[in-house]
Amino acid sequence: MTSYRLQVNGKPHTVDVDPDTPLLYVLRNDLKLNGAKFGCGLGQCGSCTVMLDKAPVMSCVLPVSLVGTRAVRTVESPGTRWVPGVVLQQAFIDEQAAQCGYCIAGMIMRATALFERESTPTDEQIRNWMQPNLCRCGTHMRILRAVRRAADVLATQPVRKKR
């Protein structure tokens, strides 16, 4: 066991775990943050997507020892209340993008990363960006429409900072 100091959702945490423990397990088991889901355990489905600094990562294959001092953000983050996060969540509701809901936290985090990089993404950028995350229920088209809807709404709103 090794002690790791993590910055998760803006708060410091110290955990004592094996260096090879996936970040997903630390988030779910030690920090009780259950938004990110265990899907495949191989970094192939994206249900476990969280943000590491501003990049989406699949937390099921990221050893906690590689996180270092970088900020971890999950779907439970207060940052999801910033304007794009609220708009994005509402777009997923409006487009009925969730069927079972298992992939949605990962999809929301991946789309959040897109909006932090590109304020007005094209349909092609949205498709390419969201491609690594899978929906086993087959609502990909609704998910893409939700991200497009959020992008359209955000394009008409003044930019606001996170609270």
Annotated CATH homologous superfamily of the largest domain: [2Fe-2S]-binding domain
Major sheet description: 5 strands, mixed
Number of helices: 5
* Topology pattern, helix = H, strand = E: EEHEEEHHHH
Number of strands: 5
The top level CATH class name of the largest domain: Mainly Alpha
- From the spread of the alpha carbons, the general shape counts as globular
- The order of strands across the largest sheet is 2-1-5-3-4
Helix content: 25-40%
Q: β content, as a range?
A: 15-25%
Protein name: (2Fe-2S)-binding protein
Pfam families: Fer2 (PF00111), Fer2_2 (PF01799)
Keywords: 2Fe-2S, Iron, Iron-sulfur, Metal-binding, Oxidoreductase
GO molecular function, one term: 2 iron, 2 sulfur cluster binding
Give a brief outline of the structure.
The protein is of the alpha+beta class and about 160 residues long. Helix content is about 35%, strand content about 15%.
